[in-house]
User: Which sequence fits this backbone?
């Protein structure tokens, strides 16, 4: 479930055997857990440990480093806007350094996506079942198809009040696929083009994205599955970080406040063992290619 790794610095030089084991464990659906890897806030960043600047219409405060774009915020002065961008940019840089040092096999292939800050208490957040992260799910995005690429995420709990981030971690991806694939109908011809034409999706929704999104929705909608699926509670204390492929690991965030997260996309062919990817697992079960 958790593969612990000793590190106190985001630019730690890891031994080759640790790098190899970390890549193998990650690709096999484990969570890389760095219990002593804290992200320290600068003095002028500590006032962001509040919910007052989070737009209540969005789940997270988000930042895209390459586009220098910040969204999901409210009631920020120009100075605070710049400070928050710098804060999230710094975390993005630290997360990137960590991945390069720990998972060098992926260097040169990763695509950096958005950085998020999650100041809202998870247990208090109200939403539709599709957006309810307290329900077991694998990640898939309705408007942003990832077309088979892996979703690699680096989290860090920066809670100042000693509160753990509490997850439920569910059964292996293969079992999730075996449970829900038979319930999912094939996408009808032309549907993906229509979604793109209507600007419902930002890119082409491949058959892979269709099946992943339907699995995501069906998992969250199934109350019986949420109760009875094999699962385990995992706690991430303040001052710890963890790395997980959230398209592979069935997870639910149950409790916690003030978490940073950096998302990367990784092409399947850049994996050490592409056969372990959700894409290849689904293609094997459905006996047809899902990316075209």
Assistant:
């Amino acid at each position: 479930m958790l593969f612990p790794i000793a590190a106190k610095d985001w630019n730690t030089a890891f031994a080759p055997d640790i790098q190899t084991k970390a890549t193998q464990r990650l690709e096999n659906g484990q969570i890389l857990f760095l219990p002593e890897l804290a992200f320290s806030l600068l003095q002028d960043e500590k006032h962001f440990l509040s919910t007052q600047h989070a737009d209540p219409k969005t789940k997270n405060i988000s930042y895209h480093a390459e586009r220098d774009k910040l969204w999901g915020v409210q009631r920020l002065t120009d100075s605070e806007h710049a400070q928050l961008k710098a804060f999230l940019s710094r975390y993005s840089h630290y997360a990137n350094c960590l991945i390069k040092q720990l998972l060098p096999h992926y260097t040169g292939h990763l695509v950096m996506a958005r950085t998020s800050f999650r100041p809202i208490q998870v247990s208090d957040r109200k939403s539709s079942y599709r957006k309810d992260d307290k329900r077991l799910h694998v990640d898939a995005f309705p408007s942003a198809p990832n077309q088979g690429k892996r979703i690699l995420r680096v989290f860090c709990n920066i809670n100042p009040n000693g509160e753990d981030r509490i997850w439920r971690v569910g059964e292996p991806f293969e079992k999730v696929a075996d449970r829900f694939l038979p319930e999912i109908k094939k996408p009808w011809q032309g549907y993906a083009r229509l979604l793109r034409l209507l600007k419902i999706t930002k890119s082409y929704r491949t058959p892979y994205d269709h099946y992943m999104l339907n699995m995501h929705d069906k998992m969250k909608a199934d109350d019986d599955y949420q109760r009875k699926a094999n699962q385990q509670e995992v706690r991430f204390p303040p001052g710890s970080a963890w790395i997980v492929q959230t398209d592979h690991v069935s997870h639910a965030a149950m409790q916690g406040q003030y978490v940073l997260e950096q998302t990367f996309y990784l092409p399947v062919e850049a994996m050490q063992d592409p056969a372990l990817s959700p894409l290849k697992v689904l293609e094997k079960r459905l006996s047809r290619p899902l990316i075209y």
Summary: Helices lie at 16-27, 78-102, 173-180, 191-197, 207-221, 223-228, 278-286. The domain at 11-286 is CATH 2.60.120 (Jelly Rolls). The first strand starts at residue 2 and ends at 4. Residues 78-102 form the longest helix (25 residues).
